[in-house]
Write a structure and sequence with these properties.
Blueprint (H helix, E strand, L loop, with lengths): L3 E10 L2 E11 L4 E5 L6 H9 L6 E6 L2 E2 L10 E4 L11 H11 L4 H14 L15 H13 L5 E5 L7 H18 L2 E6 L2 H7 L2 E6 L2 E6 L1 H6 L4 H6 L4 E11 L2 E6 L4 E5 L8 E6 L5 E4 L8 E11 L3 E8 L2 E8 L11 E5 L5 E3 L3
InterPro entries: AAA+_ATPase, ABC_SmlMolc_Importer, ABC_transporter-like_ATP-bd, ABC_transporter-like_CS, Mo/tungstate-bd_C_term_dom, P-loop_NTPase, PotA-like, Transp-assoc_OB_typ2
Family: Belongs to the ABC transporter superfamily. Spermidine/putrescine importer (TC 3.A.1.11.1) family.
Protein name: Spermidine/putrescine import ATP-binding protein PotA
Length: 355
């Protein structure tokens, strides 16, 4: 297990800064998710740690040592790619043992370490199979065993579950988390899947335009996004535009452009300033009927209903704005399109974000 520190990382491709003076730390033994849109810098960061990309400026340190000049094969880093990169002509045992063979590990030690690695990923008994004889999930676990068998300091995962179908991907999330906990290795992974990042990560960082928009524990970043990009990228959010009308008793009252008044904690807020609020669809409560004016409520008309078995998503037209509402199906009747409704939320469920 090791700590990885990135200090002032800069990587340019022509006029484009893939990494723009990025500094961050990955703690010993943690599972850290990097997510963001294509071209945001997350994959460049991963490849810089691996040694496939040389930084124009800055340092990559493992346990305090700058490894910028260290060749890829000497960094003692394990990596799993999205397409697994297994050797099709080798069987499972040979694939997993490849890194040990390159390192001149004795045959007896190879057999033991390969057996232990396959037991860890629950593939014992499949040593003689070729990759084409395995399912996608099994191939992913072979790639993981191959990365771990050399006992690396750090494990890097590049979209590790991206090639799997949804059901198998959810199963492998649980397996991947179990294995990482059992081994205790510092793990850094790139994903575009928000649910995957929230499920697996101890901490996450949202990248955009070569920089970090926000980093922290998944629950913290999800519940308290700092700006519109973070709120909209990690999950779905409704954005309410308004202006701070008054401060009373530690609360800020905001006149909403879509109608009504929102009340939020008033710390750091000044009367008259413009306000942009983010409210998650699952934090809204929907009831049929028009309850009229009030704090933290909007009246509107259901314009669309999306039934998903255990839940229903409503699109509600409130003036000129469309609001998304997510509701678990708990026996209440599903509201039909055209129904007049009132939406409610608690003051702490509306987060003031920057544009």
């Amino acid at each position: 297990m090791s700590q990885v520190d990135i200090i002032g990382a800069v990587k340019r491709y022509g006029d484009v800064a893939a990494l723009d003076n990025v500094s961050m730390s990955f703690k010993d033994g943690e599972f850290f998710g990097l997510l963001g849109p294509s071209g945001s810098g997350k994959t460049t960061m991963l490849r810089a740690i691996a040694g496939f990309v040389s930084l124009d400026e800055g340092e990559v340190r493992i346990d305090g040592k700058d490894i910028g000049a260290t060749p890829v094969y000497q960094r003692n880093i394990g990596m799993v790619f999205q397409n697994y990169a297994l050797f099709p002509h080798m069987n499972v045992q040979e694939n997993v043992a490849f890194g040990l063979d390159v390192r001149k590990v004795s045959a007896a030690d190879q057999r033991k370490r390969v057996a232990d690695a396959l037991a860890m990923v629950r593939l014992s008994g499949l040593e003689q199979r070729k990759p084409k004889q395995l399912s996608g999930g099994q191939q992913q676990r072979v790639a993981l065993a191959r990365a771990l068998v050399t006992r690396p300091k750090v494990l890097l995962l590049d979209e590790p579950l991206g090639a799997l179908d949804k059901h198998l991907r959810q199963e492998m999330q649980i397996e991947l988390k179990r294995i990482q906990r059992d081994v205790g290795i510092t793990t850094i992974f790139v994903t575009h899947d928000q649910e995957e990042a929230l499920t697996l990560s101890d901490r996450i960082a949202i990248f955009n335009a070569g920089g970090i928009v926000q980093a922290g524990a998944p629950a913290e970043v999800y519940a308290k996004p700092i700006n519109r990009f973070a709120a909209g990228f990690l999950g779905e959010a409704n954005f309410l535009v308004g202006q701070v009308a008054a401060l009373e008793g530690g609360w800020a009252k905001i006149d909403l452009a879509s109608g009504g008044i929102a009340v939020i904690p008033g710390e750091g807020i000044q009367p008259g300033q413009p306000a942009l609020l983010a409210v998650r669809p699952e934090r809204l409560t929907i009831h049929p009927g028009d309850d009229g004016p009030g704090n933290n409520r909007l009246c509107g008309t259901v314009s669309e209903v999306v039934f998903s078995g255990n839940s229903t998503t409503y699109r509600v037209r409130c003036g000129e704005q469309s609001i998304s509402v997510f509701r678990q199906n708990d026996g209440q009747p599903v509201l039909a399109a055209g129904t007049q409704v009132t939406l409610y939320w608690e003051p702490d469920d509306a987060v003031l974000v920057s544009a």
